[in-house]
Design goal:
This protein has 19 helices and 17 strands. With 557 residues, it is an alpha+beta fold. The strands form four sheets. The protein has a six-stranded antiparallel sheet, with helices on one face. A six-stranded mixed sheet has the order 8-14-15-3-16-17, with helices on both faces. Helix 7 crosses helix 13 and helix 18 packs across helix 19.
Length: 557
């Protein structure tokens, strides 16, 4: 629900602060006074297009702030958008610069304008004369019919939409499988050959490093034998020269002799003993290594051959054996995916058939529900049209069957018979603007009671009507306002008389103000709207009679 609007430097409005109430709020005023700017301000808060031309002459920017009472679906949408709702209220702001971009805020936080539009759908529904054109489209008529349905019908619409999306996806997968059948088979063969070759080679992690080390050793046996021999000679010594072992033993003996004079030398002597043991062990290991060095041309050839085979498998797949094994695991997963029944074109064809059957089944249920809703909506609108001085008028709703599409198995078409002697014709063909306005109002009154939107805004919905019909329009707007907040821009006193809150848009020179009217001032405004002299007793009496009549009609309905 709209609680307040604060407008600054918007069009002819220099500054205005509006307070709305529950029930029916009407905005009245002379033609050109600026009633349209009030609606423009609201549309800006709901994510409408920002035109710099709306900025008041001489101002740098136009500013609009609104306080909304938020609950239900709107509160949930706000939370999903990351906007905090405090005490059930939300402040929405919009700034339109004379030069530069517009700015939007929700709850004090900057947000994209698209966010305002997304939330605005849950807050307010605006109807204007342009909706007469929109309502002529079959898609808009389908939306009205579906909106008339309750949760069960909405579930059928969602079920059909899901089935349709699933069928579209099934067709896409089938088509892709058909188009890439040869590519798929080639990929399967390639992956099978590669994974089988890797399995046959029986590669293990780190094997490429092991093979590299082995071929280096087998290729350089003589050099390795010479190096080990020199090392052992240095440790063991020769006939004419002592080795490292002899020198360490001599050092140990010297320290032992010295320890008889100073026991502190016993420690270094013991450490040299440990060195001797390590050197002895090292000599034995080098001897064993030297004994194992042997030329093995067959083993060397086998190692080279395996390295070449491994390198061939690595090309285009990995840089080492460990990476190749990871590639093999991924290739096996891909093979499983390609050879799974779900990837087979014939299986996909069957899946598509089943998805299409689900579309047909869901569509049949949706069609049956729409057919029942069409009859119910038609009867309810006919009742409202009789009350709106269109006695004998009939709104027919035809469901024209066609092949399944994104929204069902039929087109929805509204047909209007304005009076008993006229034929049924598509809505908008042959009907006057006043008749279309009344049809729109009747539809809104009938469907509005079931809608989630908390606020309805009507802009000149009473165009082209007057007299008793205008009174009936006001009565129905007041009835809708019992369950929803309703805001109406009107030029008819018969409609304004039903208001719970009456706001008057006044223009003095180039400046427009908005003021609430009550009691005597409201009587004067109604007298002005009726074309009489607000200062005359007869005009005021006529206005009072209009107010009394509206009050009586509300209490009776």
């Amino acid at each position: 629900m709209i609680e307040t609007l604060r407008i600054r430097s918007l069009g002819v409005i220099a500054a205005a602060d509006l307070e709305f109430g529950h029930g029916l709020t009407v905005l009245t005023g002379e033609t050109g006074a600026g009633k349209t700017m009030v609606l423009t301000s609201l549309q800006l808060l709901l994510g409408g297009r920002a035109d710099p031309a709306v900025v008041r002459t001489g101002a740098e920017r136009a500013e609009v702030d609104g306080v909304f009472e938020v609950g239900g679906a709107a509160a949930s949408t706000a939370e999903e958008l990351g906007i905090e709702v405090e005490d059930g209220e939300l402040i929405v702001s919009r700034t339109v610069a004379q030069r530069g971009r517009s700015r939007a805020r929700l709850g004090g936080r900057p947000v994209p304008v698209s966010t305002l539009a997304e939330l605005g759908e849950e807050l307010v529904t605006i109807h204007g004369q342009s909706d007469q054109m929109r309502l002529r489209r079959s898609s808009a008529q389908r939306e009205v019919l579906d909106a008339f349905g309750g949760p069960d019908h909405t579930a059928l619409v969602d079920s059909y939409s899901s089935a349709w999306d699933a069928a579209v996806e099934a067709r896409r997968r089938r088509d892709v499988a058909r188009e890439s059948a040869q590519v798929r088979e080639a990929e399967i063969r390639s992956l099978e050959e590669a994974t089988q070759a890797i399995a046959a080679l029986d590669v293990h992690e780190g094997e490429d490093d092991e093979l590299r080390a082995e071929t280096e050793r087998l290729t350089n046996v003589e050099d390795l034998r010479l190096a080990v021999g020199r090392a052992r000679s240095a440790l063991l010594g020769a006939e004419d020269a002592p080795g490292a072992l002899d020198l360490v033993r001599g050092a140990q003996d010297a320290l032992r002799d010295g320890s008889s004079f100073d026991q502190d030398l016993g420690g270094p002597a013991a450490r040299l003993g440990s060195c001797l043991l390590e050197l002895d062990s090292l000599c034995d290991d080098l001897g064993a290594y030297e004994g194992g060095l042997a030329t093995d041309p067959e083993r060397l050839a086998a190692a080279h051959e395996r390295r070449a085979a491994l390198k061939e498998l690595l090309v285009g797949r990995a840089v080492d054996a460990t990476g190749l094994l990871a590639w093999q695991a991924a290739a096996r997963d891909r093979l499983q995916e390609l050879t799974a029944p779900a990837a087979d074109p014939e299986a996909l064809e069957q899946q598509l058939h089943e998805a299409q059957e689900r579309v047909l089944a869901a569509g049949a249920q949706l069609t049956a529900s729409r057919d029942a809703l069409a009859r119910e909506l038609s009867r309810a609108v006919d009742v409202e049209l009789r009350g709106l001085a269109m006695r004998g008028a009939h709104l027919g709703i035809r469901l024209a069957a066609h092949k399944p599409g994104p929204h069902g198995r039929e087109d929805v078409e509204f047909l209007l018979r304005p009076h008993p002697d006229a034929p049924e014709r598509p809505l908008g063909q042959g009907a006057s603007g006043g008749e279309l306005s009344r049809v729109m109002l009747a539809l809104e009154v009938v469907t509005g009671a079931r809608a989630d939107s908390r606020t309805f805004v009507f802009d000149e919905v009473d165009a082209g009507i007057g007299g008793r019909t205008a009174t009936e329009v006001g009565s129905r707007l007041a009835r809708l306002a019992r369950s929803h907040q309703v805001v109406v821009v009107t030029h008819l006193p018969q409609v304004a008389a039903f208001a719970d809150v009456h706001l008057v848009v006044d223009k003095e020179g180039a400046t427009t103000t908005v003021r609430p009217v009550r009691d005597a001032s409201r009587v004067l405004e109604l007298a002005r709207m009726m074309g009489g002299d607000p200062g005359s007793e007869a005009a005021r009496r006529h206005a009072l009679e209009l107010l009394d009549g509206a009050g009586v009609q509300q209490s009776e309905s």
